[in-house]
Amino acid sequence: MKSNLRLQVFIPAFGIVLLAGIIGLVDNPWLISFFQGIFEGAYSGFGWLYQLITIALFILCIVMTFSKIGNVRIGGKDAKPKYSFWSWFAMSLTGGIGASLVSSSISQPITFFENVWGELSGYGIEPGSAEAALFALGRTFHEWSFFPYAFYGVCGVSIAYVCYNKHKPVNVSSSLVPLFGDRANKKGVATVIDSLAVLSLALALVGTLGTFIGLATSCLQKVYSIQPTKVMMLGIMFITTVLYLISSVSGVDKGIRFFANLNFKFYVFLMIVFAVFGGSFAKVLSESVSSLGYWIQNLPLWSFDTGEIGGPALIKWWTIYNWMFWMAFAPVTGIFLAQLSYGHTIRETLIVNWIMPSIFAIVWMSIFGGVAINMQSSGVDLAGEMAASGTYVAIWSVLQQLPLSEILIPVTLFIMLLSFSTSADNSITVISALCVRERKIGDEAPWWLKLIWGIAIGLLSFLLMAFAAGSKGNDGVRYMVVTMGSILSVFIILQIISTARLIYSYHKESGKETD
Fold first, then answer.
1. How far is the C-alpha of 82 from the C-alpha of 91, rounded, in Å?
2. CA distance 26 to 9
3. Is there a contact between 348 and 64 (Cβ–Cβ < 8 Å)?
4. Residue 509: in which H helix or E strand, if any?
5. How is 438-450 classified by DSSP, letter by letter?
6. I need a surface site. Which of 26, 110, 161, 351 has the fewest CB within 10 A?
7. Do residues 196 and 484 lie in contact, with contact meaning Cβ atoms separated by under 8 Å?
8. Are 501 and 237 in contact (CB under 8 A)?
């Protein structure tokens, strides 16, 4: 089994992850400042490009969903789906999001609504006003729905089509075959692209596990007055790591499908609780519908604004920063989504991987963000608490205002744990699989390789949170992730061109067949 290990992929990616941990422990300020400088340089020089990349992916998803190529069945015309529709959607949804969905649905709208770090200044909107409420929800829709999920939509479809229908190797680089032919899978090219993709997602998992540790410790401190300690962080890391490793080692058909379905049910339960107990649901619905219209009205400006109007507080530190995070996640997550899409058409795949998660995000953000904005308007100073204690505290402050908070708070913390774990287990599965040669899409990596990656990511998250955390948690690692996203943007651009060529070639060939 060990002989099948792709050492040229595993060693660089694993080595840099460990090196990041060592540098973070020895000189965390240097780690933060160095990679923050790279991020700021990338934004200054290429912020316009990242906006155009996101728009191009969005357009490609529209074209593939509503044109003839949408009828193509992944795996061939006789391929049969492996999973039921709702299991497929649950794994797709929970595999692409983590605990940040729950916390961001509160913290991001409140940040925008009260202009906590100057997000409204560029557009001249009065903080706390009726328009600020529309902007807060509308902007959150923009950064959590159809545009970011287009990264997953294009990556998932292009990899699935090339690997299943054209029988190409299961590498991230295979999605470039329509553009470069078999040269895209030359050993050197495939190795570099796969190594970068594995490294990006591994670091992203370190950062997101650090986010969950921060959310959990803030809950214990805010709600139960238990001060964070290194032993506490170690315990949280241990429980989380064990959970996602059990799921990942069990494989997609057992562990990941079970946890994904369970997690999805908890998502629905939590939405119902907020809708029922969060105040005037009619007002929440009214604000949400108006915010949707406000987003559509401002869609052209927001899509093309590179900071010249909105300003860096909004465009740089929210929009572009978020797009670069999605770039880091998308290539490897695309392999996981491709694996689930076998037997479905491209149109069905985009409905499940692009349209439905986007609609779910809009509904989720409407309920949670709407409740939080109404609380803020009613005198609960969520923005003040965030400014004083960090964004992690917002979700717990809201829950404390609801009936049965003593039950809801531990339930929500458990949902966050489950949410991160179901996101992490698919990532560990695909990261490990990319480190193995001569495999087909859907093949599982050996359990010991998943164990190595899972333990390393868990330990690194704990060490950086306990000994080298910055003002936003794993600051150094977070900036490393967006740096990797900026590097992978070159790959994303090539993938856009490759997918466009795939669409063109298909329509050209189908046109000849009908002549």
1. 13
2. 26
3. no
4. helix 475-514
5. S--TTPPPPHHHH
6. 26
7. yes
8. no
The residue written with tokens 């990532």 in the block is: 427
pLDDT of residue 515: 41
State the amino acid at position 490 in one-letter form: V
> Do 382 and 368 form a contact (C-beta atoms < 8 A)?
no
Is the predicted pLDDT of residue 473 greater than 80, yes or no?
no
User: Exposed, middle or buried, 277 (CB in 10 Å: 0-12/13-18/19+)?
Assistant: middle
Cβ atoms of 104 and 144 within 8 Å: the answer is: yes
Residue 359 burial (C-beta neighbours within 10 Å; 0-12, 13-18, 19+):
middle
Q: Which of 59-68, 286-295, 396-405, 460-469 has the lowest mean pLDDT?
A: 460-469
CB atoms < 10 A from the CB of 254, how many?
12
Domains (range + CATH), the chain:
2-514 (1.20.1740)
Largest CA distance in the chain: 74
DSSP bridge pairs for 436: 5
Region at 439 (left for phi over 0; alpha for psi -120 to 50; beta for the rest): beta
Alpha carbon 331 to chain centroid, angstroms: 11
| Cα distance between residue 123 and residue 319, in whole Å | 15
What are the counts of helices (DSSP H) followed by strands (DSSP E) for the chain? 19, 0
Phi and psi angles of residue 238, each rounded to the nearest 5 degrees, phi first? -65, -50
Using CA atoms, how far residue 257 sits from 87, 422, 455, in Å, is 7, 9, 22
Do 366 and 275 contact (CB within 8 A), yes or no?
no
Amino acid at 317: W
What is the DSSP secondary-structure string of 22-61? HHHHHHHHHHHHHHHHHHHHHHHHHHHHHHHHHHHHHHHH
Greater confidence (473 vs 385) lies with 385
What sign does the dihedral 49-183-14-207 (CA atoms) show? Answer: positive
Radius of gyration of the chain (CA): 22
Looking up tokens 């990349």 gives 53
Strand stretches in 23-156, DSSP E = none
Identify which of 152, 56, 174 has the alpha carbon closest to the alpha carbon of residue 352.
152
Cβ–Cβ under 8 Å, residues 271 and 102: no
Over range 326-332, report the average pLDDT: 89
What are residue 345's DSSP bridge partners? 73
Q: pLDDT at position 514, please? A: 47
